[in-house]
Design brief:
The complex is a heterodimer of chains A (about 240) and B (about 400).
Chain A: H1 6-10, E1 20-22, H2 26-47, H3 53-56, H4 63-94, H5 96-105, H6 109-122, H7 137-161, H8 168-199, H9 209-212, E2 214-216, H10 217-223, H11 225-232, H12 235-241, E3 242-243
Antiparallel strand pairs in A: 1-2, 1-3
Chain B: H1 9-32, H2 44-47, E1 53-55, E2 61-63, H3 68-72, H4 81-84, E3 108-109, E4 114-115, H5 119-127, H6 148-151, H7 168-181, H8 185-196, H9 205-216, H10 219-224, H11 237-243, H12 252-256, H13 278-286, H14 312-325, H15 335-343, H16 346-403
Antiparallel strand pairs in B: 1-2, 3-4
Helix pairs in contact in B: 7-8, 14-15, 14-16
The chains are: A mainly alpha (about 240), B mainly alpha (about 400).
C-alpha cells in the first residue's frame, strides 16, 4: 500500500484543495459576536428581576450588590446593542459588503415559493428541496424579527431608563412590551436560531461558522444551491465568496 | 374510660413546672438579676414559667410567659404590669380587660407633669383608614381591623429585634456622649433607646411588605371592606428592589407614609391629605420634604397613574363599563363593585384596557409564533432523518451485494 502512495513518488504530498465559502466576513463576525454577547448578558440580567423571592434569598447578604451590578450590566449591554444596531444601519448603507447584504436580504416573491416548496419537501410531497439563494426565507424572517425586536426593545428600554420624563401610562406600556418581547426573543432564538446553526442533526458537534465565517463546499452545494450556482458562474462573486 | 397518662394531669403539670423553674433559675436566673425591674406586684411568681399558658375557647394557644430580661429592655420595661393590664385583682384572672393603649398610665411625662397616655395617637388612628370609625358611624367587620399590637408587636414576642435595632453607627457615638453625664449605663441605654425608637427601622422593607400584605392580600377580608388586594405591587420594580434588599427600596410605607406623614393617620387616596392623592403625588415621588428623593426629575405626567396598577377594581370597573355599553345589567350591590366604579376614572379604565390588550396580543402571538417555529423545525428534523435513512438504505444493499 505505502509503496504506491503519491508521497513516495513525488517526495511531497499533494494537498487536497478543499474550497470553503464565506458566509460571514470579518466585520459581520465581529458584529455577530458583540450582538450575541450583549443578547446573553441582557437576557440573564433582565430575567433576574423575575426570580421569585425565596430563590433570591439564597444570595443572602449579596442581594443588593448583585442587583446593582445586574442593573449596570443590563444598561451597558443595552447601550452597546443600540450602538451596534446604529452601526449596522451605517454598514448596510455605506459599505460595499453591507449593501450586498441588504440587497440579498430584501424579501422577494421567490422566498414565498421557496417556503411553500420547502414545506412540501418536508412533508414528502416534493422530492427535492428548493434551491436557496444566499439568504433563505428562514434567514429573512429571523432578520426581520431581529429588526422589529431590537427596535421595540431599544425604544421601550430607553423609555424605562429615562422614566422620570414620561407619563406613567407610556411607561406601563413600555414595561409590558419590554418583558413580552424579551420572552419572545429568547424563545425565538432558542427554537429558530440555535436549532438552525447548532442543534440540527447534520451539524457537527461544534459548528465553527460563527468564528471562521466559512462553510464547506459540500454544505454550500447542499443548503444554498442557488447561491452556489450563481457564484460558480460569476468570477467576481468567486473572488468574494470562495476562500481556498 | 382509659387514661393516656399514667399520672393525674395536675401532678404532671406541677412536676413540669418545678423542673422548668429549676432550669430557668439555674440557666438564666443569676445572669438577668442585674437588669431586672423590681417586680413589686409579684407577677413573675407565676409568669416566669415558659410553659405557662392555655388553650382558649377557640382552640388558640395563648402563652402568658413573660421573659423579664426582654421585658426590661422593651419600650415599656419601666412600667408596672397593672399600668396596662387593668383588672387582675383575682387569681385566676377572671376580671381581666383587654389592654387599651389609650389608658392613662401612672408614669408622669416630665415636660407636662401629666400622666402619660397614647390616647392622642389612638384617636388619630381610629379616624384613619385602619381605625374603627366613630361611635356614630362605626365600620363594619371591626374584627378585621388591625389593633395597636397587630403592628407594634412587643419586643417580648419578637426575639429577633436586638436592643440596638439595625443602625449601630447612629447609636454608638451618641450613646457615648450621653454617658458622659449619665454615668449609669443601664439608664442611659434605656433612655437613648426610648428617644431614638421612632428613628430606627424595626423592620426590613420585605418584613414591612409582609406585615401589610398579611391583611391586604387577604381577598375575603379586603372585598368586604370595599378595598382591592395589592398583589399587583409584586409586579412593580419597587418590589423587585425590595426582593433584592436594596437600600431604601420602596416598600408600602415609603409612598403611603412618606417623610412628614404618620402611619397612624393613613388616609384614603381620595383624601387631599393623602400622600398618594394626585395633589401630593409629585412630591411623594420626587421629593419628600428634601429628605427622601427617589425620582428627583419626576414630571407631573410621571407621577400620575396607578403604581401597583390595575388589579381587581380596574377589572370590575371595566366590566361594568362594558356591560353598560352592550346594554346589559351587571349585578351590583357589593361594596367593592360600587367603589370600583367610583374610583376608576374613564382614563384609567382606558389605560387598563390598552395594557390588557397588549398583554393579550402577546399571550396569543408568542405561543403562535414559537409554536409554528417548533412545528417547522420538527418537520425539518424529520426530513433530515428521512434523508439520512434513505442514504443509509441506498448504501446498505450495495454492501450486501458485495458481501454475497
Amino acid at each position: 500500500m505505502t509503496e504506491s502512495s503519491p508521497k513516495d513518488n513525488q517526495g511531497f504530498e499533494e494537498p487536497v484543495r478543499e474550497r470553503y465559502f464565506v458566509r460571514l466576513n470579518n466585520n459581520e463576525r465581529i458584529q455577530h459576536l458583540i450582538f450575541g454577547s450583549c443578547f446573553i448578558v441582557l437576557a440573564v440580567t433582565g430575567f433576574m428581576i423575575k426570580i421569585p423571592e425565596n430563590l433570591v434569598s439564597i444570595l443572602g447578604g449579596y442581594r443588593e450588590t448583585v442587583f446593582l451590578i445586574r442593573g449596570i450590566l443590563h444598561r451597558i449591554a443595552g447601550g452597546t446593542m443600540i450602538l451596534l444596531c446604529l452601526y449596522h444601519v451605517y454598514y448596510l448603507l455605506f459599505k460595499t459588503a453591507g449593501r450586498r447584504w441588504l440587497v440579498d436580504m430584501l424579501p422577494r416573491i421567490k422566498d414565498l415559493t421557496d417556503m411553500a416548496y420547502n414545506l412540501l419537501y418536508y412533508l414528502g410531497i416534493r422530492k427535492e428541496p428548493p434551491e436557496f439563494d444566499r439568504f433563505t426565507y428562514k434567514h429573512k424572517m429571523e432578520y426581520g424579527a431581529l429588526i422589529a425586536g431590537s427596535t421595540l426593545m431599544s425604544v421601550s428600554g430607553l423609555l424605562l431608563w429615562s422614566e422620570s420624563m414620561w407619563n406613567k401610562f407610556i411607561l406601563d406600556i413600555a414595561a409590558v412590551v419590554h418583558g413580552m418581547e424579551a420572552i419572545l426573543a429568547c424563545l425565538a432564538i432558542m427554537v429558530w436560531h440555535v436549532y438552525e446553526v447548532q442543534l440540527k442533526p447534520d451539524r457537527s458537534a461544534l459548528n465553527n461558522t460563527w468564528r471562521t465565517g466559512l462553510i464547506s463546499e459540500e454544505e454550500m452545494k447542499h443548503e444554498y444551491a442557488g447561491h452556489y450556482k450563481k457564484i460558480m458562474s460569476d468570477p467576481e462573486l468567486q473572488n468574494i465568496y470562495i476562500k481556498s | 374510660m382509659k387514661t393516656v397518662f399514667p399520672f393525674n394531669r395536675t401532678i404532671l403539670i406541677g412536676a413540669l413546672m418545678i423542673v422548668g423553674a429549676v432550669l430557668i433559675y439555674n440557666v438564666s436566673g443569676p445572669a438577668m438579676a442585674a437588669n431586672m425591674v423590681p417586680d413589686t406586684e409579684n407577677c413573675l411568681l407565676c409568669h416566669r414559667y415558659p410553659g405557662m399558658g392555655r388553650y382558649d375557647e377557640n382552640g388558640r394557644k395563648r402563652i402568658f410567659y413573660v421573659n423579664d430580661d426582654k421585658f426590661a429592655h422593651s419600650v415599656h420595661g419601666k412600667l408596672k404590669c397593672k399600668n396596662c393590664h387593668v383588672g387582675l385583682d383575682k387569681i385566676p384572672h377572671t376580671d381581666i380587660k383587654k389592654v387599651d393603649c389609650s389608658t392613662m398610665c401612672h408614669i408622669k411625662e416630665p415636660s407636662t407633669n401629666r400622666e402619660f397616655s397614647h390616647i392622642n395617637m389612638v384617636e388619630k388612628y381610629e379616624a384613619s383608614v385602619h381605625g374603627r370609625g366613630s361611635k356614630e358611624n362605626p365600620k363594619p367587620f371591626p374584627e378585621d381591623l388591625p389593633t395597636c399590637t397587630y403592628c407594634h408587636e412587643n419586643r417580648i414576642y419578637n426575639p429577633l429585634g436586638g436592643f440596638w435595632g439595625k443602625s449601630e453607627a447612629l447609636s454608638n457615638e451618641t450613646l457615648a456622649r450621653c454617658q458622659g453625664c449619665h454615668t449609669q449605663e443601664g439608664w442611659a441605654k434605656d433612655f437613648y433607646s426610648h428617644f431614638t425608637h421612632r428613628m430606627r427601622r424595626r423592620r426590613t422593607q420585605a418584613e414591612m411588605v409582609r406585615l401589610c400584605t398579611s391583611c391586604h392580600e387577604d381577598s375575603k377580608k379586603m372585598i368586604r371592606h370595599g378595598v382591592e388586594t395589592v398583589e399587583t405591587y409584586k409586579d412593580t420594580f419597587h418590589w423587585t428592589q425590595v426582593k433584592f434588599d436594596v437600600k431604601d427600596a420602596p416598600d408600602c410605607v415609603s409612598c403611603h407614609v412618606p417623610v412628614g406623614y404618620s402611619s397612624h393617620e393613613i388616609r384614603p387616596k381620595t383624601d387631599p391629605n393623602s400622600p398618594v392623592n394626585m395633589l401630593n403625588r409629585l412630591n411623594t415621588c420626587s421629593n419628600q420634604g428634601g429628605l427622601q428623593t427617589c425620582h428627583p426629575g419626576a414630571t407631573a405626567g410621571f407621577a400620575t397613574g396607578r403604581v401597583h396598577a390595575y388589579g381587581m377594581k380596574a377589572q370590575l370597573a371595566a366590566a361594568k363599563r362594558f356591560s353598560n355599553l352592550v346594554g346589559g345589567e351587571m349585578s351590583s350591590g357589593e361594596l367593592i363593585k360600587e367603589r370600583a366604579v367610583i374610583d376608576m376614572t374613564d382614563e384609567e379604565i382606558f389605560h387598563f384596557m390598552v395594557i390588557k390588550l397588549i398583554k393579550l396580543f402577546y399571550k396569543i402571538f408568542i405561543p403562535l409564533v414559537v409554536g409554528s417555529m417548533c412545528l417547522h423545525q420538527w418537520l425539518d428534523y424529520l426530513s433530515l432523518r428521512r434523508r439520512r435513512k434513505k442514504s443509509a438504505g441506498s448504501a446498505s444493499p450495495s454492501h450486501r451485494q458485495e458481501n454475497e
